[in-house]
Amino acid sequence: MKTKKFSVRVLAEIAIFAAIAYVLDLFQGIWFKGIWPNGGSIGVAMVPIFVISYRRGLIPGLICGLIVGIVQMSGGVYAVTGKNFDSAFMQTMAPFIQISLDYVLAYFLAGFAGAFAQLYQKGKDFKSKVIWIILGTVVGGGLKFLAHFAAGYFWLNTSDSFCGISSDSMVFSFVYNGTYCFPNIILSTSIMVLIAKIAPFLLDVNYKKEEEAIEEEKENEVEQA
């Protein structure tokens, strides 16, 4: 019973933070619409994913990121046609692979910040906790960038250009995705450090107190029965 209730609590938090991340992503997409013609924006949509990752760990972080990535597609996607590939197989699969990298996997990989959650929780002082926050957010944000960068392979030779760089090499993908991914990493990391400073309760979970509350709820249910 305790495990079931704890799981419901965690799932509820995942849903809440995923919803917040989606709304933030939606608004930043509106604000920066047109700057990156094939998708991209600067904002703090990764922060809720980072928060649940440090609060609950790796798996909840990955689940939250996956939900955000999938729901994000409801607002539309930027997809290649695959016509630049010679083989019929790649012409068919290119859009699916590119969309998977740019949308489904990108935010999912941001959840890998949760791999540093236990190290953060064990930090003895604020300085040590900040180190694990920086490492985790840079890794999570960096993996998200790599997903977008890899997706850039499918945009090669599509007659696109950005900042004077044509899409005839992966330099185009690095510059295009780097101009919004790197600011996002810096901005999200800064906010996470600020959260750890002024609102650490968002990242720290008192599991003992939580278990006691669950036990109390269980006892109340038995008494009511």
Kindly describe this structure:
- By secondary structure, the chain is mainly α.
- It is built from 8 helices and 2 strands.
- It has one domain: Arp2/3 complex 21 kDa subunit ARPC3 (Orthogonal Bundle), CATH 1.10.1760.
- The model has no long low-confidence stretch (mean pLDDT 87).
Topology readout:
Layout: H1 2-31, H2 46-56, H3 58-72, H4 88-110, H5 117-121, H6 126-151, E1 161-162, E2 165-166, H7 170-198, H8 207-224
Antiparallel strand pairs: 1-2
Task: Write a concise synopsis of the structure shown.
The chain is an all-alpha fold and 225 residues long. The chain has one domain (2-213): Arp2/3 complex 21 kDa subunit ARPC3. The chain has helices at residues 2-31, 46-56, 58-72, 88-110, 117-121, 126-151, 170-198, 207-224; strands at residues 161-162, 165-166.
| Unreliable segments of 5+ consecutive residues | none
The CATH topology assignment is: Arp2/3 complex 21 kDa subunit ARPC3
Q: Return the domain count.
A: 1
- The helix-strand sequence is HHHHHHEEHH
Helix content: 55-70%
Radius of gyration: 20 Å
Q: Find the count of extended strands (DSSP E, 2+ residues).
A: 2
Question: So what's the overall shape?
Answer: elongated
List keywords for this structure.
225 residues; mainly alpha; Arp2/3 complex 21 kDa subunit ARPC3; two-stranded antiparallel ribbon; 8 helices; elongated
